[in-house]
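> example.struct
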């Protein structure tokens, strides 16, 4: 008690360097597979836990706030930190288990007068099993997690050669979506994107688990899309918008920060490429990455229509502490040169990002509901209020805005302030013009 969030985070990290993680395993019948947690890089998210603890007793409603304060004082409130882990490695674990647990089964056979009945095969539902594991881990478990494999049974069909030798009719065409040309064994499949110089491979175990049995093997596209979605988190790069500077003397606009294109994995196209490669027994498929242009392109400044000052806002913070002044400076810098495209909604919380000590904010007085307390980022609302006044005077539609819980001298006349509390309480307005808007503190 009595700590700032930054102090609490440092204390937790120091006192609990190795957070106890319960055992996690999958099972089917008498078989069990234990998850090796080191490969997942499992770690507690102490920052989220500290933020949850900080909100205890700070609800906007008085009765709810009072009830939480009493509960915390009398018996304490237990907050378990959520877990962070490598989702791609988790899925690889499930694929490895599926490779061991799956059973190919056996089609029915007729040998003369002797009929050999079919033996059902077992296929592990990788997607459903992975989802169940993630749900268990996301619940911050305190006891062992012991989950059953999600499996389905299937009856394998005879291959063309087997059917021919047994005198059975062979279908002329395979079922839609099938990979009739696939051999029984699998080799690594390279995934290549020449534009971005990416060359990786899917291992044979992984590929075998993507295939469904039968005479014409089929690609489990749902499981493949799940895998590629995890891969996209590593490969995707968000585009970077340009930051600009307006010169009122010349009316010219210069580049403050350059824009950069991003890239995005085209999952549907990559699935199609992998499917075609497997069907044609090729050793390489295309990893399809598409270029994503920035919303604010430094090469299109002349088209943006930034020509003059259309509105300004002001507020005063004389008498603020050094920490509060520092927070105002840090927050204002976040919006220096920010450009809002036509039709887009400006979000203060998106622009200011996380108001944390790690982002340069300091402890200062903040308004929580109708009370004053010490918290990280006191003074940030000075910036949101100033931007609100500029947007309001320009006549832009205000999408979201909240007053402070009580009148503060720094914000002047009541009704012309805008409180924010990341990530829930935001200030937003719509750029309903046909031109780009440039913000300069």
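> example.seq
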């Amino acid at each position: 008690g009595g700590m700032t969030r930054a102090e609490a985070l440092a204390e937790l990290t120091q006192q609990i360097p190795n957070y106890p993680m319960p055992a996690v395993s999958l099972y089917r019948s008498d078989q069990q597979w234990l998850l090796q947690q080191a490969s997942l890089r499992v770690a507690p998210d102490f920052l989220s836990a500290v933020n949850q603890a900080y909100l205890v007793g700070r609800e906007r409603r008085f009765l709810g706030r009072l009830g939480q304060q009493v509960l915390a004082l009398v018996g304490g409130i237990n907050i378990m930190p959520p877990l962070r882990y490598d989702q791609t490695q988790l899925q690889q674990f499930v694929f490895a288990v599926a490779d061991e647990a799956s059973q190919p089964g056996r089609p029915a056979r007729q040998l003369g007068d002797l009929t050999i009945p079919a033996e059902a095969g077992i296929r592990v539902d990788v997607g459903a099993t992975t989802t169940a594991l993630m749900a268990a881990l996301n619940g911050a478990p305190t006891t062992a997690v012991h989950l059953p494999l999600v499996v389905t049974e299937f009856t394998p069909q005879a291959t063309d050669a087997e059917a021919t030798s047994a005198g059975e009719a062979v279908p002329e065409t395979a079922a839609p979506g099938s990979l009739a040309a696939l051999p029984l064994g699998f080799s690594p499949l390279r995934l290549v994107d020449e534009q971005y110089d990416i060359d990786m491979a899917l291992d044979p175990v992984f590929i075998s688990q993507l295939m469904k049995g039968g005479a014409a093997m089929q690609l489990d596209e749902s499981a493949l899309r799940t895998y590629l979605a995890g891969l996209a988190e590593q490969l995707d790069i968000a585009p970077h918008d340009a930051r600009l500077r307006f010169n009122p003397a010349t009316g010219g606009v210069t580049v403050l920060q350059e824009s950069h294109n991003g890239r995005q994995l085209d999952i549907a196209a990559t699935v199609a490429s992998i499917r075609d490669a497997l069907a044609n027994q090729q050793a390489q498929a295309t990893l399809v990455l598409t270029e994503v242009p920035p919303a604010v392109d430094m090469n299109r400044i002349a088209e943006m229509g930034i020509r003059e000052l259309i509105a300004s806002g002001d507020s005063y913070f004389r008498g603020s502490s050094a920490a509060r002044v520092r927070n105002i400076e840090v927050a204002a810098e976040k919006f220096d040169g920010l450009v809002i495209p036509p039709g887009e909604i400006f979000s203060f919380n998106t622009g200011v990002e996380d108001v944390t000590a790690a982002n340069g904010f300091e402890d200062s007085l903040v308004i929580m509901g109708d009370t004053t307390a010490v918290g990280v980022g006191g003074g940030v609302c000075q910036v949101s209020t100033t931007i609100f006044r500029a947007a309001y005077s320009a006549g832009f539609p205000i999408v979201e805005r909240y007053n402070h819980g009580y009148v503060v001298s720094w914000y002047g006349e009541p009704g012309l302030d805008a409180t924010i509390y990341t990530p829930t309480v935001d200030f937003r307005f719509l750029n309903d013009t046909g031109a780009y808007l440039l913000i300069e503190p």
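> remarks
Residues 87-101 form the longest helix (15 residues).
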